[in-house]
Amino acid sequence: MFGRRKSTEPKAMKQDTDSITELVRRSLDVAELKYTYSNATNHFSIVFMGDDLPINVNLVVDDLTIRFVSHLDLKAKPEKYKDVAWELNGINKRLRFGAFYLDPDDGMISFEYSFSYVEANPSTDFILAFMKMFVGTVDEHDGDLKNLAESVSASRNAMYG
After folding, report:
1. What is the C-alpha separation between 102 and 115, in angstroms, rounded?
2. Which residues lie below 8 Å from residue 82, measured CB to CB, with a gap of 6+?
3. Exposed e or buried b per residue across 53-75, where buried means at least 16 C-beta atoms within 10 angstroms of its C-beta
4. Would you state the pLDDT for residue 110?
5. In this structure, what DSSP letter does residue 80 have?
6. Cα 11 from Cα 65, distance rounded (Å)
7. Averaged over 125-141, what is the pLDDT?
8. Model pTM score
9. Residues 6+ apart with CB under 8 A from 109
10. Higher model confidence: residue 6 or residue 123?
11. pLDDT over 80 (residue 124)
């Protein structure tokens, strides 16, 4: 069972929060992306323009993960929560990574994924490729979600933590 045999594989380099934060910063700089950074919450915020809506991506680095979070500029009407939740469940079932969520407190829709870097050695190419997939997933589905939910100018606080 787990842990009984000694592994012959070389151990991955242990990463720390500071090195991963610097990796994310370098990745965004290499791609010449405009971003804001909060030292207090150790998170980066980047806005992309999708086909239907702006896509705000937050990358939050903590001691275990890089959390990719996008709060969509969509708010579901309370009477549509059930329909939106079922639609999100259907979308989530088909996704390879991440999930869309409906916040029952305010009706806001978000897309989230956490990548554990503890035993990994991510590169700038990985960060940028993953962010491209993340934004692509949001962009693919936000138009349909916009039609299902009521669109509002949410201006939700980009700080996530």
Report:
1. 21
2. none
3. bebbbbbbbbeeebbbbbbbbbb
4. 95
5. G
6. 18
7. 95
8. 0.82
9. 71, 72, 74, 75, 76, 84, 88, 100, 101, 102, 103, 145, 149
10. 123
11. yes
Residue 67 banded pLDDT, cuts 50, 70, 90? very high
The angle, 0 to 180 degrees and rounded to 10, between the axes of the packed helices 124-148 and 81-94 is: 140
Contact of 109 with 76, CB cutoff 8 Å: yes
Beta strands 108-116; 65-75: pairing state: antiparallel
Between CA 41 and CA 80 the distance in angstroms is 33
Compute the distance between CA of residue 48 and CA of residue 62 in angstroms, rounded to an integer.
Answer: 23
Say which residue the tokens 């589905």 belong to: 141
Cβ count near 50 (within 10 Å) = 17
Count how many residues are written for the chain: 161
Beta strands in the chain (DSSP E): 36-38, 43-49, 54-61, 65-75, 99-102, 108-116, 150-151
Task: Report the candidate in 88, 77, 86 with the shortest Cα–Cα distance to residue 150.
Answer: 77
Residue 132 CA to residue 62 CA, distance in Å, equals 21
Residue 109 has a CB neighbour count (10 Å cut-off) of 26
